[in-house]
What we know:
Layout: E1 7-24, E2 30-49, E3 54-58, H1 72-83, E4 91-96, H2 107-122, H3 129-137, H4 143-148, E5 152-156, E6 160-163, E7 171-176, H5 183-188, H6 207-214, H7 222-228, H8 231-241, E8 246-249, E9 256-260, H9 263-276, E10 281-286
Parallel strand pairs: 3-4
Antiparallel strand pairs: 1-2, 2-4, 2-5, 5-6, 7-9, 7-10, 8-9
Amino acid sequence: MQEALPRVEFAPAKVNLALHVVGRRDDGYHLLESLAVFTRFGDRIEIEEADEDSFVVSGPFAEGVPTDETNLVVGARDALRAALPHASARVSIMLQKNLPPASGIGGGSSDAAATLRGLAKLWELDAGNERLSAIGAALGADLPMCIEAKPLIARGTGEQLSPVAGFPSLGLVLVNPGVAVSTPAVFSALKRRDNEALPALPTRIDFHTLRNWLEMTRNDLEEAALSIEPAIGAAKRALENADAGFARMSGSGATCFGLFETGNVAKRAAAVIRKRHPDWFVAATRTMPSEDAHEQD
């Protein structure tokens, strides 16, 4: 009998192209509105049946990543078992960590989402995205959108998702100046929590219409993150100096993104930034398009 191959799941980086903080609930959770996209660069999860559970981390950012229950991958495995008790087979999980941790691009949440998707397939569970999102939401607000992993508008605490139709594949460069920023610290440093909502998206989305729309939006966490870690400003300037059509911090930082018209232009810009800042994390990639959109170079 042929030995089953490991199940491989991709865990893409999540980029908040715009992020507005529009309120705060009585329980302390912030209300957000965000246009989020996912990229062709990210982490990688391998899962296979085993005699006992194990979890190992490899890759360029493996150092310091916990392998106990504090890691969202282990939390996702255990949460799925708790929700669906018949899913009890032991598994070996390997995480290839290509994204810097605590960097505002959803690495841990995307890893957990990929784990939920992979285990559901391996265990042949009757659990679609809606069920997996409900299970994952208890682990973190970003889990539902990372389960979907396609262009979307997220509202509320991140649980209200609206897919964006016609979103093309666009060139992006991700830059992190080698620093981690605490998300709770950034939210604590906010000066205002009742900002304006996102404007309506353009009816047709391409590089130019999106850039113009982004100019009317914000990342309301950027100022607070900059007050904690000024190096974020250097990362954003590096993208602007490399002729990004638009540059901004993603999520709670410290990773910044630059928008480029094509993947090839993004690659050239990344090479320039990498040469100027060899110690930084720099990755050229493209956004994953909507299901109804055509691929672009």
